[in-house]
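Sample 3 of the quickstart, ligand flavin mononucleotide:
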Amino acid sequence: MRIDIGSGVYRATRWAITGIVYTFQRLFGREYDLESAIHIGDALLARCHTWRFFKHPCPNRAPITVCGLSFPSPVTIAAFKADIPSLNFWLALGAGGVCVKTMRLHPASGNPRPRVAEISIRNTRCLINALGLPSDGIDTTLQTLKTSPVLSTGRPIGLSIYGESLADYTALTQRIIDAQLPGPHYIELNSSCPNLGHDTNDSTTSLVDIVNAVRALTALPISLKLSPMWSNHTLDILISSLSDCPDIMLNSGNSHYQTLDALGLNTHTLSMPGGGITGTPIFESTLARVKTLSRYQLPIIATGGISTPEQARAVLNAGASLVGIATGVVFDPYCIVRINHHE
Ligand SMILES: Cc1cc2nc3c(=O)[nH]c(=O)nc-3n(C[C@H](O)[C@H](O)[C@H](O)COP(=O)(O)O)c2cc1C
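Result:
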């Protein structure tokens, strides 16, 4: 009952905020821009995580241990939210861990707005984004994180990083080491953002070299956020090359790039010609990817299109240790509670 009320309140509030923002934008002759509504939502989420009403326990069973990290629930929040205070809300609802949105070495503004939109594919609601990795820069984010209650929950925190060169990755890793964060944490290498126009695992920035360089600096667990664009052959070469590297986890995937044209969307939907699809339409591909990855005997975080207990169970049965959710918690964060109830 409390789940249904909380979920209803969240969805109604989100609907109202989005409606008001769109009405305002239309009245003033502006493009629809979901990001304005997101900022209002973040401010609200950051306030209500301490309310008892929004607190839900993690499953009453032994935690899941992955690379020495203890997750009290298999549900984790995928890297997508830069606003650290709102991460507390999902932890209060029972998420077993959260990954902070990808940090860059220096502040970066990302692509022009509008750069995220809610769309429908085959009558299913989902998101498309072309944010282009905006970041306040790793120093600012780590500083905010250090004083945040996010770390005091004792649940593992992912620190997603993206660099343009091997030197960037070593500098980013060094910043994380120097920060001496008090809670359990791991590094996630975002090698798969589809909105940057190039592939991290190319001849100039080999992902294997990046992983080895990061591993030479720290014993922290490393999660590899794999691209859904890479073939099974590419994955095989990559993962086999890392067989001697300890404490690696595989994050099954990122958003799926599509052009607005191919999706039949208005060119004003985003400032860019296309963006990454996230949410339910990419679930089947996530499941297939988890089955492929399961042969490598490495822990897997299944990410992409998961929002129901049935979907979570399907990827866990297919070999994943954890699930990562982004779009699902945007539409209804009570998916965390519902999945936990079934685990
Ligand atoms: C608005 C938005 C921003 C995102 N930003 C990042 C990011 O900074 N780094 C990253 O690795 N993935 C990012 N993602 C991808 C998510 O982490 C996740 O891989 C993807 O959304 C698929 O999961 P989902 O279907 O549950 O949303 C972003 C996704 C969304 C929707």
